[in-house]
Amino acid sequence: MQIIESASGLLSETQRYRRAGKTIGLVPTMGYLHQGHLSLVEYLRPKVDILITSIFVNPTQFGPSEDLDSYPRDATGDLNKLRAAGVDIAFTPELADMYPERGEVTVTPPTLATRLCGASRPTHFAGVCTVVLKLFGLSNCTDAIFGEKDYQQLQVLRAMNRQFFLGINIHGGPIVREPTGLAMSSRNAYLSARERELALCLNRALREAQQLFEGSRKRKEHLSVERLRTHVLSGLPLSEVGVALDYLDIVDPTTLEPAETLNADTRVILALHVGKTRLIDNAALID
Amino acid sequence: MQIIESASGLLSETQRYRRAGKTIGLVPTMGYLHQGHLSLVEYLRPKVDILITSIFVNPTQFGPSEDLDSYPRDATGDLNKLRAAGVDIAFTPELADMYPERGEVTVTPPTLATRLCGASRPTHFAGVCTVVLKLFGLSNCTDAIFGEKDYQQLQVLRAMNRQFFLGINIHGGPIVREPTGLAMSSRNAYLSARERELALCLNRALREAQQLFEGSRKRKEHLSVERLRTHVLSGLPLSEVGVALDYLDIVDPTTLEPAETLNADTRVILALHVGKTRLIDNAALID
Q1: How many other C-beta atoms can be found within 10 angstroms of the C-beta atom of residue A61?
Q2: Is A9 an interface residue toward B (CB < 8 Å)?
Q3: Which of A11, A159, A165 sits opposite B165 (nearest CB)?
């Protein structure tokens, strides 16, 4: 595995591969890799000639009071995992490689980035879109993959790819869960034992939504969006100390606009503060 | 020459060329082609395998009180000129091809877009950057060319290309002038005979700046930025009815920040209203 630190180094390498007609896959990460990330590598590995994983904790997608400084890191462990997973190039830029100038051009994300996570993190998706567009440029990728855990991010990036006509195949990687059902996240490292217990409510809420929907379908009963939402909401432990709802929404899977009716693809998506940690999760009504 | 109207049609065609290892050149235009545009075609033609010229009057780069509705058009004449110039593909999209969705992602241009023309046209360069990024995506271009007449635009797009790591070779095409010295522009079509006479002052101002600089150099005299600016300004016919200065600046050729000292590359750049028409021009202190 080649480790490339400089932006210009990656650009010249990937331009050479593209000229030679190779397909290039990109797995962008912020490091501290877990099985969720590695499942994205495994998914894309057989689909492309050259597989690149980037490790870059991108400051522009963190808000001023967020966890940029404490975001967990494990450079050596990450590289070992990527090597074992058959990655060709690990791209590990410094801040000045990614943002070399002052007053740089940025991406203003599509409207769908203003909902859900965008409502409580107003600058987040501008940072994500900008850094991902830069990574697309540097990697010359034909394919890229993003986890469905960050479901809104996936849809925002798909919209960017479509609307800017970037022509990249954007893949969504299924959520990987711990045996308890907790969606894997680097931020789970922040959780105390009690918080980890409380955090199971996110996945539980999604399963309850699926069960209610499935039951209504079987009994051929109409289930309204509002009844589903009320039911899921009532199952969340919002009276527990340290648990606070950011949002719980039932949305169209592409536009992320509030669903008007329910179907198998309708997405249930939620964000919850557990202690100082903000956790997100989502699922389709039928997996 | 192939005429392609649909975005998806162009994208599939250019992806095929790129996979085959061809170089692709893009000449973006808003049509009503004159020798200025054709000189860009001539410049890029021998440098690339496939040459694409786009004709699209992009509404997002016009301000609300600007000349979008009256912008001159000549579809048939344009296609004949491109055919004669050896263009491979003329891309003539409709509005809905370029902007198919609501609430789309946009580019927020770099800081250097806020100066000069950006000060009086605050949304202009966001529109330019967004449409050009879309055209870059659709054309899969390895090379693109923009005229130096829109000098700030050229520098803004170079910054976008550099900062987003697009890896495109951006060429600047020298200004083409009428025998009178007036820089060619589709907007010259708006000028009355008297206005056309008055409009010669832009080029004259640039030549005066060059002569003053050249003379000072020969005599080894120091010439300050302020003295140069005052001299050029005093030569403009600002007391004439219908003539109004937008800006006259002496700037660093890359950052477009005000120059502190003068050298051969220092750029003199100005914008002037003549009647209802806004005209721009620029030159280096030594051509």
Answers
A1: 21
A2: no
A3: A11
**Which chain B residue is nearest to residue A131, measuring alpha carbons?**
B164
Identify the segments of chain A with pLDDT beneath 50.
none
- Beta carbons of B80 and B106 less than 8 angstroms apart: no
Q: What is the pLDDT of residues A183-210, one digit of tens each?
A: 999 999 999 999 999 999 999 999 999 9
Mutation pick from B24, B133, B163, B254 vs chain A, by most beta carbons of A within 10 Å, is B163
**pLDDT at residue A19, as a whole number:** 87
- Decide if pLDDT at B242 tops 90: yes
A118 contacts chain B (CB < 8 A): no
What's the rounded Cα separation, in Å, for the pair B150 and B238?
Answer: 23
Answer whether B105 sits within 8 Å of A163, measured CB to CB: yes
Decide if pLDDT at B276 tops 90: yes
User: Among B7, B21, B163, whose Cβ lies nearest the Cβ of A19?
Assistant: B21
Q: Does B133 touch chain A (CB under 8 A)?
A: yes
What domains can you pick out in chain A, each with its CATH number? 2-173 (3.40.50.620), 186-282 (3.30.1300.10)
User: Which residue in chain A is spatially nearest to B14 when comparing CA positions?
Assistant: A167
ipTM over 0.90: yes
At residue B19, does pLDDT exceed 90? no
CB count within 10 Å of CB A76 equals 8
Question: pLDDT at position B25, please?
Answer: 98
Q: CB–CB of A161/A168 below 8 Å?
A: yes
CB pairs < 8 Å spanning A and B:
84
Q: Identify all chain B residues contacting A165, using CB atoms and an 8 Å cutoff.
A: 7, 11, 134, 137-138
Residue B84, pLDDT above cutoff 90: yes
Give yes or no for A106 touching B (CB within 8 A).
Answer: yes
Q: What is the pLDDT of residue A110?
A: 98
Catalytic residue among B37, B171, B231, B273: B37
Does residue B95 register a pLDDT over 90?
Answer: yes
A254 at B interface, C-beta within 8 A: no
Query: Is A110 close to B103, i.e. CB distance below 8 A?
Result: yes
pLDDT per residue as tens digits for the range A6-52: 999 999 999 999 989 899 999 999 999 999 999 999 999 999 999 99
Q: Can you tell me the mean pLDDT for B157-166?
A: 98
